[in-house]
Every structure is written in C-alpha cells, then in structure tokens.
Specification:
328 residues, alpha+beta, 8-stranded mixed sheet
Length: 328
C-alpha cells in the first residue's frame, strides 16, 4: 500500500491528519533559490564509506544502465548487509552485550523523502525495510519489534543474524566484558553511500549493526536523518561513520550539507564537521569519526580524525579507494 493510499484509507482523526506534515517532516519544499551551479553535463557517480568495492560496483551497474540513484544506493549497500564476513553490517554483524544482533538503517531520496528502522532484529536487509517505511507508510521511522513486524508484513524473511564467528567472539568478550571499541574496526560500524544518477538526482543510504557489544537498545547516528545521512538535491549529500554519539551531538551530515550550501567544497565541509567534534570533545584522540560528501557537480570529499578511514568512488573516471585525509 502506497503512502498516499495508506493515509486515505486509515482512520486518522482530524488532528492526526493535521499532524501528517510532522510525521513526514523530512520532505523538503521546493527551493526558490539555486545555490549550487550545476554543470550542463551530468556525470553519474557513487561514493561509499570504507573499501567496499562490491557495493560500489553494484551501485554503479545500476547507474550506468540509466537507473536512478535511489535504487543504486539501496542495491549497493545490500551487498554488505548480506556479506557475513563484514561484521559491522547486516547478517554476521557483531551483537550487543546480550548476544543479539540489532540493525539500524536509513535511506533518503532526491525529493527529501526518507525512511528508517532502528533496533531491528532477524531481518538482513534493514535498508530495504527502511525504504518500505518511506514508501509504504505515513511515518519516517519504525523501531524494534514494530519494525520487525512491519518487515514480515512486507514479505521479508526471518533470518538468524548471529553467525558462529560473531557468536564465538562475543563469548570470548564476555569473559572480561571490557567495552573498548577498536578504532577503524568495531567502531566504524557503518556503510554509508551517496549517488548521483544521469538525471542529476542525489540519494543516500546508511546501514549498520552498530558498535560491537553495545548496551541493549543503543542506537547511534546511522538511522538518524541529519546525523548519519542527509541529502539536499539542490546542494549535495553527506554520510558519516564512526562514534555515533559524537555525530549525533553535532547533527553531522546535515552540518556538512549546510556548509556546502554556504559555498564550502565537499572536502572543506567534511573537515569543518570533524573540527567541530574535536573542539567539543577533549577525548577525541580515543574515537574515530569520518565523513564523506558529494555536491551537485559530482565533486567529492572525505575527512576523519584518525588515519585508516577510506572511501570508495566509482564514476566514468574509474573505480578507486581513496585514503581519507585525517586530523591526526
């Protein structure tokens, strides 16, 4: 059932109907001013956090065939969600302290529509459930058992997400139960992807299993529109990875896009967003945060606190992994 049909057929009261703009507040109004000049020739491009060549290649396949950016980012990050060797995303992800794998994800299209799921269990493709939330409900975010039940209603199969490898590591961790995420391993916890299609439309996706051995119920930045991901089709998009709590505090991805709106390049915007975190957190040397961004002209950038973060770019110029510049 599509969003409009859902609203028409639902038994919402007049007050409920009046609250719909709040529920769908991620939708943007038509822009009156054009801030960024768009080149006359649109060049499709995809960029993703970390070295995920299978994901960016899959997304690029969609774009080069003339597909749209929303399909590209969804299909792209699905590759990592299904890869059990990637223990920070989807099936095979590291569990929380109670041994449960819980997934967070969000997605945003060129029109400002968005959807998210948080603390969802037993469903591999959290990003696709997030898209269903965006397209099939009047809401932006579903959580926990509600998100899981909605996924089943949409035809997603129930799957065991905790693999033997992740279970063995969790049992070993329990011997001391020392919570000390390893920079660029446990606490990169995300794949974020941005794409521009041949029409010049920008979309983004972000999905994660969260930090290893987190407290049950913990949610980071990844499913939060404005923190883990933000897209403004007139300006560009940004997505984040790393210590989610610090990204949430600065509404990081929204900040990056707003800085680009003010005239900063994607690289300059990412650097300033990281600098905001460093300025506010005296313990910044013990955490990792990284941003990537793309503007309407297809220019990209990335920046992080510690060396070790990289991002993948696929365009007509080729397919490469870029070592991000870093503060330290």
């Amino acid at each position: 059932m599509k969003r409009r049909k859902f609203l028409k057929n639902s038994s919402l009261t007049t007050a409920g109907i009046l609250s719909t703009p709040i529920l769908t507040s991620c939708k943007t109004e038509e822009k009156k001013d054009t801030i960024v000049a768009v080149t006359s020739s649109i060049k499709p491009i995809v960029i993703a956090t970390w070295n995920v060549p299978n994901s960016t290649a899959e997304a690029w396949n969609v774009l080069k065939k003339g597909g749209n950016s929303l399909d590209a980012v969804e299909i792209g990050v699905q590759m990592e969600e299904a890869d059990v060797s990637n223990q920070s995303v989807g099936k095979g992800g590291r569990p929380d302290r109670d041994g449960n794998v819980t997934l967070d994800a969000c997605i945003m299209d060129s029109k400002g529509n968005c959807g998210a799921v948080v603390y969802m269990q037993n469903i591999t493709h959290a990003i696709s459930v997030a898209r269903k939330v965006m397209e099939e409900t009047p809401h932006v975010m579903l959580a926990g058992k509600g998100a899981e039940q909605f996924a089943y209603e949409q035809g997603f199969p129930k799957e065991k997400l905790l693999t033997e490898k992740s279970k063995t590591e969790w049992l070993e961790w329990k011997k001391e139960s020392k919570y000390a995420p390893v920079i660029n391993i446990e606490n990169h916890d995300t794949i974020g992807m941005l794409a521009i299609d041949a029409e010049g439309d920008i979309s983004g996706a972000c999905t994660t299993s969260g930090m290893a051995y987190k407290m049950a119920g913990r949610v980071g930045d990844s499913p939060i529109i404005g923190s883990g991901l933000f897209v403004d089709n007139d300006i560009g998009g940004a997505t984040a990875t790393g210590q989610g709590e610090e990204i949430v505090k600065t509404v990081g991805s929204f900040l990056v896009v707003e800085l680009m709106r003010q005239g900063r390049s994607p690289q300059e915007a990412c650097e300033e967003a990281v600098n905001r975190i460093i300025k506010n957190d005296p313990d910044y040397e013990n955490i990792q945060v990284g941003y990537i961004a793309i503007n309407k002209n297809g220019e990209t950038g990335g920046y992080c606190i510690h060396p070790g973060f990289s991002y993948r770019v696929f365009s007509e110029k080729g397919h490469e992994n870029v070592d991000s510049r870093s503060y330290l």
